[in-house]
Amino acid sequence: MPPxxxxxLLAAPRGFCAGVERAxxxxxxxxxxxxxxxxxxxxxxxxxxxxxxxxxxxxxxxxDEAEVPEGGLLVFSAHGVAPVVRRNAxxxxxxxxxxxxxxxxxxxxxxxxxxxxxxxxxxxxHAGHQEVIGTTGHAxxxxxxxxxxxxxxxxxxxxxxxxxxxxxxxxxxDEANTVIDVIRRRYPQARGPRGEDICYATQxxxxxxxxxxxxxxxxxxxxxxxxxxxxxMVEVAVDNGAPAAYLIDDASMLRDEWFDNVxxxxxxxxxxxxxxxxxxxxxxxxxxPGGADxxxxxxxxxxxxxxxxxxxxxxxxANLG
Length: 321
Ligand code: SF4
Description:
This protein has helices at residues 18-34, 48-57, 83-91, 102-116, 130-136, 149-153, 173-186, 200-215, 228-239, 275-286, 310-313; strands at 6-12, 38-41, 59-62, 73-76, 95-98, 120-124, 143-146, 163-167, 218-222, 245-248, 264-269, 292-298. The protein has 321 residues and is α/β, with parallel strands linked by helices. α2 (48-57) links the parallel β2 and β3. The chain is flat and about 70 Å long. It binds iron/sulfur cluster. Iron/sulfur cluster binds at residues 17-20, 78, 101, 103-104, 169-170, 199, 201-202, 229, 271. Iron/sulfur cluster binds next to α1, α4 and α8.
């Protein structure tokens, strides 16, 4: 019997979120307006293809502001930075542009507010992640980082009636809730964000991944291994019954053996993965014996957009092509 075509369910929404779109635009615009080099502190967003494309255009990625020559132009990444980084940049006479996602800034402001009120702050997040480092730097004396319910059980806070919690924006919604449940049990008076700190894009991509997981034999998430939200999407797929789920940087990572007895493939991408990588994966699936039929699976409509920083909004560089 000739091979049957794969059915590919393509998740919507997927890929670039408003914060990533804005951060990448800031670097592209800065390169156009000021010319290279434009220094970027840390990967602007966690995707190897995005970083490589900007490097080709003249961006230089550094891990420390001290690596930038005096007077250089430095962009802070979408993950945000601690206030000490801004002070260092000022001392080094650097020009700066801030690509911190506004939804990360919102968490920074919560941390400062809770700290000013004398509360101990429990930050639910992953140790070592850039966003967590930046958020912690806004209230270093008050923040206690936890990753698991066990970490919360082990906390010994000075005054259990004066506690608040915040979260990293790109966590698994379900896992974060298991941690928050323990926080609420141990500290019933704990104050939390009015909405979720986990951002709309993380939430929507996970919701769409859950639907894919239930309806397909294999889930493919396009994204880089250091992208927190992309890795969470793979975990969400497995937790919601996907027989197999893989994180792939691009089409070159597809493996023939993944497709044994697979009829339906769910395809999605993390918030930092460009759409062209998804298009290339679809082309690779169509090129397989039997080909592939693609259906879009609309789960949530997204219309979020963030304005550019004031300094870039009125520059005479019309398009980013
Ligand atoms: S994933 Fe969420 S918090 Fe991170 S840049 Fe995108 S919108 Fe902002």
